Every structure is written in C-alpha cells, then in structure tokens.
Amino acid sequence: MSFAVEFQEVSRHYGKVRAVDGVSLAIAEGEFFSMLGPSGSGKTTCLRLIAGFEQPTSGSIRIHGVEAAGIPPFSRDVNTVFQDYALFPHMNVLDNVAYGLMVKGVGKDERLARSREALAMVDLGEYGARRPSQLSGGQRQRVALARALVNRPRVLLLDEPLGALDLKLREQMQGELKALQRKLGITFVYVTHDQGEALSMSDRVAVFNQGRIEQVDTPRGLYTRPATPFVARFVGTSNVFTGAAAALLGGPGMGAFSLRPEHVRLQRSPAGAAGNSRQLPARVIGVQYHGASSRIELQLAGDVRLVANVNNDEGDGESLPEVGDELFATWSDQAMVPLRELPA
Amino acid sequence: MNANAVYLRTPLRRVAALLHRRGGLMLAVLLGPPLIWMCVIYLGSLLALLWQGFHGFDDFSMSVLPTLTLDNYAKIFEKGNFDIVLRTLAMACAVTVAAAVIAFPIAYYMARYAGPRTKAFFYIGVMLPMWASYIVKAYSWSVILAKGGIVFWLITKLHLLWLLDGVLALPYVGGSTLSTSHLGRFLVFTYIWLPFMVLPIQAALERVPPNLVQASMDLGARPRQTFRHVIWPLAFPGVVAGSIFTFSLTLGDFIIPTLIGPSGLFIGTYVYVQQGAVGNIPMAAAFTMVPIVLIAIYLMIAKRLGAFDAL
C-alpha cells in the first residue's frame, strides 16, 4: 500500500511552543483526509509542513514515498487552497487560474484552454475576464479551487476553505467538494475546526489537540467510539465522566467513559430497566428546545450533571420534562464508551 | 415642556441641533475655512504669479510693462532656455531611476525580512537625515565632494584616482572636480531625496499579503518568478508614488544646483536669477509654468500606473 503523505514522529517547535508534537500519520492515495481540531491545535501547521512552508524541527515527512525535507514548496507536487483564497488581485480570474501553468512554462494556448476547462468545472466558465475583487466569497473560493486543480496535483491541501462562507453556501460547497474529490480521485487533505464539516465529507479524520493527534478514525468510528475525553467532547456533544463520577454512574471499577446525550432515555417511573442497562434518579435543571429535539440538563446524586437529548416527535402522550421534574435516566451499558485519558 | 424643549434650552444645543438637521451646513462650516485657505492663499497666489508671466518687461528700464504678451512663454523654447529645461528634466529622471534602484532593496528588506527592532532602526536611519537642515546637508556635500575632500582622499588612498579622472573627463557627466560635476550634483540629489522613495515603496511592499507569495510558490513559481509576477507588480505603484516625490523635488530645486555642480542653470536657479538679480518677474513666472506642466504630465502617467492607490 502506498501512501500519499506519511508523517513519522514529526514535530514543529517555535522556541518553547510545540505547535506540532510527535505526529505520526499515513494518508492513503485518493483519500479524503481531514485534520480536525480547535485553533492552535497544530492542524494548519501540519498542512503547511506538507506544502513546504514550514520545515519540521524533527521527524520525517514523505510525500508519495519521497522524503520531503529540503524540497521547496515550488518543487512539490501538492497544491493548496488557502483559507482566504490568496487570489492575485492584479490578475483577472483566468490568469489567476493559469498562473501555475504559466510559471511552469506551459504554452499560452494550452494553459488558457486548460484554465477555461478548470473554471468550467467549478461553474465559473463565464467569469474569466473578471477581477477577483468583483466576485463573491463563494465564487472566489471556486477560483482558488480551480487554480489549484488545474495543475493536476496528486495531493490537494485545503486550509479551512469554507470558513469564510455563510452556512447555506458552506453546506452546498461541502457536497460539491466531496463530489469533485470522488470524480478526480485526488488525495484531499482538509483542515477544519468544524466537526460537522469533517464528519460529512471525510473518509478518515485525525483529531488534533495541543499539537498532538488524539485519534484517527472514520467519521462513524470517531463518533461512536471516541478514544479520549477530548475527542468525545469535540466531535458532537457528549457526557464525559472521569474519576469518582465515572464510578458512580458506570458502576464499580468503571474508568473514564463517554455517554452520548441521545443514548439517555428519560422516564417518569423507574420501570423497564433491563439487566444490561443502568438507571439513576435525576432532577431536571434545564430544558432547551431545539425543534426536532430538546436538550435536557439533569442533576444526579452527588451533584453529577448529565445531558440528555430527547426527540420531540416521540408521541407517547407525555409532555416535555420541565425544570424541577424528578425523573429516571436510563441508558444501556453498551452506550458507555470507555475513554483513555492521555497524560497531560 | 416636552423632552425636546428641555434639550434645546441652551443656545449651544440649539446650534448643535441645527447642524444635525442640516448636514450641508455642517459640511460648509467644517470645510469652509480650509477651502478658503486652499483656494485664495494657495491657488490664488499661484494663479496671480502665473498671470505675471503674460506681462512684458522692458530691459532698459528694468521694469514690468502693463502690456499683455506671450513672448515670455515663447522664449522658453529658445535654444538656451530650452537647454535648461532639458538639463533639469534629464537630472530629475536620472535621480528618480537611481533612487528607485537604491531604495527598492532597502524597502524590500524593511518590509519583508526585518524584525520590529531592525525595522525601527531602518526607519530612523532613513528619516534621520530628513531632520537635519537641508542647506547644511547640501553645503556639507560640497565640502565632501571638493578637491581635497574626504572622497578624493579615500579614492587617492585606494589608488583609484585614474578611475575618477576618467569618469570626470566624460562629457555631460564630468567636470573639473566631483563637486563641480553633474555627477556630484546627481549624487547629492539622490542622497537628499532617497527617503521619499524608500518610504512609499516600503509601504507598498508591506501591503503585499504574505499568503500571495506563498500561493505563488505553492503553484510552482520559483523565487524569481514570484518576484516578477507577484511582488513587483503589486509594489510598482509604490515605486511610482516615490518617483513623484523625487521627480518633482528635483525639478523644482534651486539650492543644490547653486551649491554643487557646473555653472549651467537649472529651472530653479533660472527662476531665482530672473526674479532676484534681474528683476524680470514676468520671465520667472513664465518659467515657473515649465515644472508645473512637466509634473502635471508626470502625474497623469503616474495615475495611469495606479500610483495614487499606493500613497
């Protein structure tokens, strides 16, 4: 199996700040790979290490099996879609797209033809003569994409490319990006802090925290089997219990675990708890209405807080819980996902 | 008494309310005084000066005649006078080009490589000479470049006197010493106006977003290509902005041509001689039109090149 990008114990330190700290990963060819994490978690630095704008302090990066150390950005077979697009303001859209071919010495006719083709691919065929300043954010985003793809890179790096767009456009572009990636078969390395974006598009996701990778998994694996407290909290929402609270809720000997709010059932009476599930009395201390579902904040014995998600369309005749209600929270043992706590 | 009446109790508040209601009046009050200054004192006196250029002058009585004539403007194109125009223009162009060539690397380093401390040092280094008296600097240069001055001493010590003599023997450029040559005058002009070139270029380069340079590299451009296709086009308006200063300042100057260089007149020195020693105000006024026209043409070209976006 050949990998598009391989990190072996890669670190990038700025003085005492460990932006990237001992990261190892392998991205398969043709994969849609996301790097997910909060700002400052090292994901963008990893992307810049692949692009060649940064050099690792230690460790080895291989791109298509070739050691990347010392290879300048302009000699790497990767292209980047920048967060704020970085379109050249003094060139029209077509010249922007043709730039990569121009500097590589592709003849004028060919490069303009290929650039028009790339613009047509992102539905901007008519916009070649415009200046970037005359385009909307979404259109600029597409130009940036065309400008990178026209070079037919084997790896495309995307640095929060949808961050500046509004929600509707972002959702539309997510679908288009995924379709484009499937069609072209190019490896996409996608940096984002938006877990919904990462889950909906990626084949696999690496979750970054404080310069390190906490977990690499498929979106489904990440959500259903988070490995660490950080992943459980960052990907979706979750109840994370550690120490004494974990033992109280999970039973004796239970270490840290995660419990998704949608796996908690609420009942008025302590009935129907099977042997392979747990049930505890709970008092409602907060209710948030979210349309399709409601988020119920509960207080258990020992001042432990628990969040439950209830579907509002479950028409068993019972009204929504209200603040102050005394209920019973029930969940199955399988819903408790044990977590591994990383040393700080 | 309603709230409005309470508010309007003092005269000052009534004025404030009036200005708030009438935006045009507010604008007139704010803009009126500076506009009067600009139109009457600034443009008015300039137009009065240029109007003088249409008067005649009697060489025998050395007095201005009330008759109106175009003779003064026609005389600009007589050979001796036109040579002055060409000489000044050539110097302004040469100084502008040299200042741009010297200033660009300095500005480039300041904008793209220097850390905060180094940049502060460069700012002071570039601007410090501007705080010193201009005439003192010009006089100092006449001493520095004179025969027996420090430049001659250094060149002699380096055994390069033959080279200097060779350069000074060149037509147009040379002269008997550096301080009486066009070369010397050119050096001093370039020295004096250099800061006016460095700062606009530096400002233009600072405004080139670093991620455009990265995007260029990312798309496969080598450093030279990135410079040619991205950095230079975006910094060029700054170069033109700087050149407006160096060009117009050289064109109108009369102190450096008086103190340094050969005896041939410049536009500035010609005007100075006409209105001072000769008292031919009409001729001096007509000649003042020359730099105004040249700079107007230059500004039109500069505008085409986008220089005013970089100021």
Structural notes for this entry:
The complex is a heterodimer of chains A (344) and B (311). Chain A is of the alpha+beta class. Chain A folds into 2 domains: 3-227, P-loop containing nucleotide triphosphate hydrolases (Rossmann fold); 239-338, Nucleic acid-binding proteins (OB fold (Dihydrolipoamide Acetyltransferase, E2P)). Chain A has helices at residues 43-51, 93-103, 108-121, 137-149, 167-184, 195-201, 219-224, 229-234, 243-250; strands at residues 3-14, 17-28, 32-36, 58-63, 66-67, 78-81, 155-159, 187-192, 204-209, 212-217, 239-241, 257-259, 265-267, 277-289, 293-299, 305-311, 326-332, 337-338. In chain A, the strands form 4 sheets. Chain A has a 6-stranded mixed sheet, sandwiched between helices. In chain A, strands 13-17-14-15-16 form a 5-stranded antiparallel sheet, with no helix packed on it. Chain A has a 4-stranded antiparallel sheet with strand order 2-1-4-5, with helices on one face. In chain A, helix 2 (93-103) packs parallel to helix 4 (137-149) and helix 3 crosses helix 4. The longest helix of chain A has 18 residues, at 167-184. The radius of gyration of chain A is 24 Å and the shape is elongated. Chain A starts with a strand and ends in a 6-residue tail after the last strand. Chain B has 2 domains: 3-52, no CATH class; 72-309, Orthogonal Bundle (MetI-like fold). In chain B, strands 1-2 form a two-stranded antiparallel sheet. Classes of the chains: A alpha+beta (344), B mainly alpha (311). At the A-B interface, strand 6 and helix 2 of A face helix 11 and helix 12 of B.
